[in-house]
Amino acid sequence: MPELLDPRAIGADLARRDGAAKVRGTATYAFETPVERPAFAQIVQASVPLGRITTVDTSAVDGLPGVLAVLTATTAERLASDEDRELAVLQDDEVAFRGQPVGVVVAETSELARQAADLLRFTYAERTHDSELTVDHPELYAPEKVNAGHPTDTADGDVAAAMATAHATVEQTYATAMYHNNPLEPHATTALWEPAAEVPLTLWDSTQGVHPARAAVAKVFGLDEERIRVVCPYVGGGFGSKGTPHANLVLAAMAARALPGRPVRLALTRQQMFFLAGYRTPTIQRMQLAADRTGRLQAIAIDVVEQTSRIKEFAEQTGVPTRMMYASPNRRTTHRVAPLDVPVPSWMRAPGECPGMFGPEVALDELAEALGMDPVELRIRNEPETDPDSGKPWSSRNLVACLREGAQRFGWAERPPAGHRDGDWLVGTGVASSVYPTMRQATSTATVRFEAGRYAVEIGAADLGTGAWTVLPQIAADALDVPVDDVEVRIGDTRYPTASVAGGSSGTNTWGSAIVVAADAFREKFGGAPSDGDEVSGDVDQAAKDSDHAAYAFGAQFAEVRVHADTGELRVPRLYGVFAAGRIVNPRTARSQLIGGMTMGLSMALHENSVWDPRIGQVVNHDLAEYHIAVNADVADMQAHWLDEHDPFVNVMGSKGIGEIGITGTAAAVVNAVHRATGIRVRDLPVTLDKVLAGLP
Amino acid sequence: MKPFAYARPADVAEAVRTVAGDPGAVFLGGGTNLVDHLKLGVARPDLVVDVRRLTARTIVDLDDGGLRIGAAVTNAELAADRRVRERYPVLAQALLSGATGQLRNQATTGGNPLQRTRCAYFQDVTTPCNKREPGSGCTAVGGSTRNHAILGTPGALPDPTAAETCIATHPSDMAVALAALDALVHVQGPAGERLVPFPELHRLPGDDPSRDTVLAHGELITAIDLPPLPAGARSAYRKVRDRASYAFALVSVAAVVPRDGEVRLALGGVAHRPWRARRAEELLRGAVLTEHAVRAAMEAELAAAQPQPGVDGGNGFKITLVQRTVVATLRDLAPEA
To answer: Which CATH class for the B53-332 domain?
Structure first.
């Protein structure tokens, strides 16, 4: 068991170090990197959902002054690796999904690039495509593993037998929609190819990890990693969509390589974000719950059906939280995936846990109703002593405390009866649990150097707006035992030591662990009075990794929903979350993370829905006017609280991840509240007014 | 995106002459819709004629007690005008329920009613659309139809390949209020000025869905008159949408209820144009506005409604929703009934 850092700067409510630059607009994002004579690239997309390009007519563009390059499958360079078919752009004449890049135009201005892109003419030999997910899709298969390396299926005991004999059962199918990560800053790159330079390729890219992005580009182009530099000081949001490189980064590099010496800027348009930046698969979740008279679960099962792209597998681990949330002797989880002619799905905030805490947490509410039991009490009654999945003890598990604290803050005991009416509004309350695994990546390195009386800490980490610029100095300060003002942390550049991706809520845990190792080594080597230039590096200490415990953050969310009795309009005047996420490094940035997650969960509950048109194979509502997210007027009294949780097993900071847990369970809490208000159980998201209209008075 | 020329003529006459004489020319008001369309390739003009500074940016009292709104008055200015708020609350409410503060500062009185449908297929140049490209067909039929029309459509299951098929709705909130207020539109064309009653400004798709209004190419809206309402008349705008703000109407209702019971009702989000509910108005003439009477009148109004199936569940819910919204709106306006 590691000894936790003595918190001094850790836990302080420090303002964001990058805040002033962002508010003043002086923080430079990838697309606006100051460069000489930038050229502008525009992606051209396939207008058929499946087929082959038969002709490419560039005649309208050829004579256009200011057009610098037109890259298509016939003119683009051959990539060194086409193993990742999402990244193997412009390598052949096949179209695997509508909107796939079939060309890129580079011009002196962005307007001209856009004009030229419109003037390219492609003809296609179209083939019959299949882009519609159905629960009984004929091509459903069991992937070898699901995302994050989890087993595809698990089973214990006999669910069917328990279902047949239990006092109460729930057997229902739930569905989550297709969702698109839409960070405010779209995917964007400024790329520069200088063949004679020591580091010929520079990519200023909006990414969740400069080193992972560099590794991917190196492989695709067959370049040594040392010959590529990726720079990303600031990110205008990612939500997972910038965690793995997408086609736009390859196209930006290709465009730059076609114009040596000329920096090229490439940003996805908002519409293109709905084709090329990843998304969350729709999920269909068949749930089975069985309970005895006292509410103790006798069986819990989830059978998940979801989609992937035919050219690249991504199998969301939707069934995973069902494996560990509640105690039950009989259990089953399965994942089946339909390969479709669709864009490539990928990470979106809390892949697995986010959709996977919808079906089960609504089903529990249905079970509570069937048992005539308080849904808070039902959850408490099914608290497992050890992890039902691994059998390991918990590193710490405070779900029950979150439920109790949340119930008290929310006034759960005094909540109005089902179907309560207040003027024109029907009022209901709902609860659901939240969970997210606590992870630490295997590799990250930090360097500590004494410079001009201060400590410089360098690590290629990323701050997506999450707070890394601020919390990493807090960790370094405590590890070095100096005031936080004496620490300068530098991140977002492959010139700094290797850092893992900002994903899986693992950034602070991983990078912080490396920083502590480096700081300890620094103190050991140079003591308390170092000289200028003294420097030491440290890696994440694998030996200190605890593998004897199951480590998760938990939470409970409580929603009050109002449904207009005439129109069915839905409002959420109150949404409270209480979380147990280890030691909170910075309450200010943590609150933003948790409230941000809850807002996104609220958005998923009521609004978000990429409307898929299977006739043409694309998202119809592909802009932010029609793809609704929660706006300020939709977010009222939203509160995030946390318990003071001590966990000696997770890492030396005692911190669990907080970037994703906020989005888990939220939609279920809202749906459960809608049911209490109206008596209508909505099992497919989002809950829109048309789904409750028929049940209004 | 296509390059275009930009012109700022000296006066209305020159602007009208310029556009009327050039099939590739368009007027630019606040630009809140046109600029989007330029970027998306939905509009591909050769010449953009800026009329923002050519028409009046004033709201003046008319002798009959009404108001004349210059075409350059912004949505924000109009919504904030004390006379509008006091005498025509339906209009102020409609304006404030639309778009965002930033857009309302930019959008104009002449331009807002001429904004084009938000049909996603219309806005996507890779899909066939009779409104954008006459004769190419309608992708919306059988597609995502949640935001589409239930009234004035070409039939129960329109032929998506037919050139006249269009199930788009008109997106403006302001226009629904103006239709209920029987506003008058001053239109300047090459041959002079004419007046168009607002409820007749917008068309149904008919045999040419590409035309949203009765205006000829080159005709410019210069002002809109609000006739006086009878003393004691009450009015309100009720918009129902998928989130609390920044969303187009699923349905909306503009209602004017004078003391004498001559109710005026206009519906938004249900048709290719702001829909005056003439049949319901007729049935409610002289009647006491009980819930029962209003519901029956709306049932008659909606008897011809055609719900569209769709990949998103379709828009059949609008029939129930608009009826319930009218009932609720009139209940609030005439609570004594």
So the answer is: alpha beta
Contacts of A671 (CB under 8 A, 6+ apart): A358, A362, A365, A430, A605, A681, A682, A683, A685, A687
Enzyme catalytic residues of A: 660
B3 close contact with A: CB closer than 8 A: yes
**Nearest CA-CA distance, residue B51 and chain A, Å:** 24
Report whether A304 contacts A176 (CB < 8 A): no
Task: Read off the pLDDT of each residue in B263-283 and give the average, rounded to a whole number.
Answer: 98
Cβ neighbours of A423 (radius 10 Å): 9
Q: Of A115, A611, A633, which is closest to B2 when you measure between CB atoms? A: A115
Cβ contacts (< 8 Å) between A114 and chain B: which residues? 1, 39
Task: Determine contact: B143 vs chain A, CB below 8 A.
Answer: yes
Q: How far apart are CA A157 and CA B284, in angstroms?
A: 67
What's the rounded Cα separation, in Å, for the pair A236 and A430?
33
Angle (nearest 5°) at CA B16 between B13 and B17? 85
Q: For residue B324, give the nearest of A567, A621, A634 by CB distance.
A: A567
- The answer to whether the CB atoms of B327 and A47 lie below 8 A apart is no
pLDDT lower than 70: segments of chain A: 1-2
| 3-state class (DSSP) for residue A39 | strand
Query: Residue A476 and residue A659: Cα distance in Å, rounded?
Result: 20
CB contacts of B143 in chain A (<8 Å) are: 613, 615-616, 620
Query: Chain A within 8 Å of B118 (Cβ-Cβ)?
Result: yes
B2–A611 C-beta distance less than 8 A: no
The domains found in chain A, sorted by start residue, are 19-28+441-544 (3.30.365.10), 33-128+185-269 (3.30.365.10), 145-179+279-439+548-695 (3.30.365.10)
Q: Where are the domains of chain B?
A: 5-50, 53-332
pLDDT score for A582:
98
Secondary element (H or E) of residue A303: strand A297-309
Contact residues, chain B, for A615 at CB < 8 Å: 139, 142-143, 311
Contact A541, A441 (CB under 8 A): no
Name the residue among A203, A190, A27 with its Cα closest to residue A110. A190
Q: What percent of chain B is modeled with pLDDT above 90?
A: 94
User: Which is nearest to A276 in space by CA: A247, A234, A236, A301?
Assistant: A247
A118: chain B residues, CB-CB within 8 Å: 1-2, 41
pLDDT digits (tens, 9 = 90+) for B66-125: 999 999 999 999 999 999 999 999 999 999 999 999 999 999 999 999 999 999 999 999
Residues in chain A: 697
User: Is residue A305 within 8 Å of A140, Cβ to Cβ?
Assistant: yes
Determine the Cα–Cα distance for residues B87 and B78; give it in Å rounded to an integer.
Answer: 12
Is the distance from CB of B46 to CB of B26 less than 8 angstroms?
Answer: no
The C-alpha atoms of residue B254 and residue B228 are separated, in whole angstroms, by: 16
Number of inter-chain CB pairs under 8 A, A vs B: 96
Q: How far is B200 from chain A (nearest CA, A)?
A: 28
What is the C-alpha separation between A306 and A304, in angstroms, rounded?
A: 7
The first and second tokens of residue A9, run together, are 């700067």
Q: Is ipTM over 0.95? A: yes
Report how far residue B251's alpha carbon sits from residue B237's, in angstroms, rounded to the nearest whole number: 11
- State the pLDDT at residue A86: 98
Structure tokens at B49: 């004629």
Q: Is B82 on the interface with A (CB under 8 A)?
A: no
What DSSP string runs through B92-140? HHHHHTSS-HHHHHH-BTTTGGGPPP--TTTT-TTS-BTTTSTTS-BSS
Bridge partners of A33?
none
Fold classification of B5-50 is 3.30.43
> Cα–Cα distance between A270 and A97 in angstroms, integer?
18
Closest chain B C-alpha to A653 CA, distance in angstroms: 41
Rg for chain A, CA atoms, rounded: 26
